[in-house]
Write a structure and sequence with these properties.
Layout: E1 5-7, E2 10-12, E3 18-20, E4 29-36, E5 39-47, E6 85-90, H1 105-112, E7 125-126, E8 133-138, H2 146-162, E9 166-171, H3 177-188, E10 191-196, H4 216-222, E11 226-236, H5 247-252, E12 255-258, H6 268-278, E13 282-288, H7 310-318, E14 324-331, H8 342-356, E15 362-363
Parallel strand pairs: 1-3, 6-8, 6-9, 9-14, 10-11, 10-13, 11-12, 13-14
Antiparallel strand pairs: 1-2, 3-4, 4-5, 7-15
Helix pairs in contact: 1-8, 2-3, 3-4, 7-8
Length: 364
C-alpha cells in the first residue's frame, strides 16, 4: 500500500491510506479519497485549509488502528527543516530515582494519540490550518551513560531550534529538560519557565550525582539558562527532606504555587497572573505528568497524592495562549504502572493542547 496526501497539487507521505484533497479557496472544502492498492473510493468531505500544512488522516475515513504510530498520525520526517513545530521523543529513564519505565513513554503516548482529532473542541483551535507540524522521531539516546545521553539531546535540539522549529517533546524522565534548555537558551537567551510538577527538581545532588531527574532546574540556574524572575512552579507537593522543600526556589526569585493552593479552584485566575509575569519574552513549558493526582495519572515513576486534576492541567496549558512559547515537554509517563493506558492518553491530550497554544495557531 502506498500512502500520500495531495493538497493543491503538492504530495506528502502519510500513513494508513492515501487522502487526495481537492480544495476550493472560497469555501475551503476538502474531498478525501482513500486509496488502497489499486482500489479507490471517495470517503467524504471536510472543511480544511487549502495551504500546504500537514493534515492527519481523519478517523472518519481512516481507521485509528491502521498505519504507523506517529504522533496524532502526522507525517514523519527525518529533520525539523521547514516545520513550525515538531514532535520529538526522548526515550530515557536512566535519570529516575524511583520506578523506571519512562523510556517507553514516547512510544505509548504516540499510540494513544490516535484518539485525537483535528480541532480543540472547546477553544476551537485549528493547529493543522495554522502551522506546519510533523513527527521527527526519537533522539538516539545512550541508555548506559546519562551524561552522554544529555550530550546527544543537546546536540540534537541545537539542530532542531536552529531551523526556527518549536520542539514539542515526549519524555522520557525529567532529566531531559536540562539539555533541551541548554540548546533553547543558546538560541533565545535565558528563558521564562512554566514548570508544572509535583516536585521542584532543584536538588543539587542525588546519590552523589549532579545530573538526574531531580536536578535539571538547579543545573539550569547554575548555567544561567533561566530568567529567574520569570519562573513559576505549579503543583508542588509531598513530603520533603527539609521543613521548607521550596526555600531554594523562592530564593532564586521563582514563584512557587503549591498544590494545596490549587485545591478546589479554577486555575484560570492564576494563569492570568502568570501571563503577566512572563511578558513578551521567550517561555518554555515543562509539564511532568506526576503533577496530576495519581488517581488520574498512575503511570509515572514518583507519584504524589493530592495533586492537580486534568481540568486544571488544561487550564494551565490553555492559559499559555499568547505567550512566546519556544518549546514544550511532557515527561515522566511510565506506561507499565497504568494498564489502562489512561496516563499516556492524558499525556497525548496535553501535548495536543500545547500545540494549540503555540504562536501563529488560529482559532475559530
Amino acid at each position: 500500500m502506498f500512502s500520500s496526501i495531495k493538497i493543491a497539487n503538492k504530495t506528502r507521505a502519510v500513513f494508513g491510506g492515501s487522502q487526495v484533497f481537492k480544495t476550493c479557496a472560497s469555501q475551503r472544502v476538502v474531498q478525501w479519497r482513500t486509496v488502497y492498492g489499486n482500489q479507490t473510493s471517495v470517503s467524504g468531505t471536510r472543511r480544511m485549509s487549502g495551504k500546504g500544512f500537514n493534515v492527519p488522516p481523519s478517523a472518519e475515513f481512516v481507521a485509528r488502528v491502521s498505519g504507523i504510530a506517529t504522533m496524532f498520525k502526522l507525517p514523519f520526517q527525518k529533520t525539523a527543516d521547514g516545520l513550525d513545530a515538531a514532535f520529538v521523543g526522548v526515550p530515557i529513564d536512566t535519570g529516575t530515582s524511583n520506578r523506571p519505565g519512562a523510556r517507553f513513554g514516547p512510544r505509548h503516548i504516540r499510540a494513544e494519540s490516535a484518539m485525537l482529532r483535528s480541532y480543540s473542541g472547546w477553544t476551537r483551535a485549528a493547529p493543522y490550518e495554522s502551522i506546519r507540524v510533523a513527527d521527527i522521531g526519537d533522539i538516539n539516546v545512550n541508555l548506559f551513560d546519562l551524561k552522554d545521553t544529555c550530550k546527544k539531546i543537546r546536540e540534537a535540539y541545537r539542530e532542531i531550534v536552529a531551523t526556527g522549529c518549536i520542539p514539542l517533546t515526549l519524555g522520557g524522565d525529567h532529566t531531559i529538560a536540562y539539555p533541551i534548555l541548554q540548546a533553547v537558551a543558546e538560541r533565545h537567551g535565558p528563558v521564562g519557565l512554566i514548570h508544572v510538577d509535583a516536585h521542584a527538581d532543584t536538588s543539587d545532588m542525588i546519590l552523589g550525582e549532579k545530573i538526574g531527574h531531580g536536578t535539571p532546574f538547579r543545573r539550569c540556574v547554575d548555567e544561567g539558562l533561566l530568567d529567574c524572575k520569570r519562573v513559576v512552579q505549579i503543583g508542588l507537593r509531598g513530603s520533603g527532606y527539609t521543613p521548607d522543600n521550596y526555600e531554594w526556589s523562592r530564593a532564586q526569585g521563582f514563584r512557587v504555587v503549591e498544590a494545596v493552593e490549587c485545591w478546589h479552584k479554577s486555575l484560570v485566575p492564576l494563569m492570568e497572573e502568570v501571563r503577566s509575569q512572563m511578558g513578551t519574552g521567550p517561555v518554555y513549558l515543562s509539564f511532568d505528568i506526576d503533577s496530576l493526582d495519581p488517581a488520574f495519572a498512575p503511570g509515572t515513576g514518583t507519584p504524589e497524592i493530592a495533586g492537580l486534576t486534568p481540568i486544571q492541567g488544561l487550564e494551565i496549558i490553555r492559559g499559555c495562549r499568547g505567550l512566546n512559547l519556544v518549546g514544550c515537554d511532557l515527561v515522566e509517563v511510565s506506561p507499565a504502572y497504568d494498564t489502562t493506558g489512561n496516563t499516556a492518553l492524558t499525556g497525548a491530550n496535553l501535548l495536543f493542547e500545547m500545540m494549540c497554544v503555540l504562536p501563529k495557531v488560529k482559532y475559530y
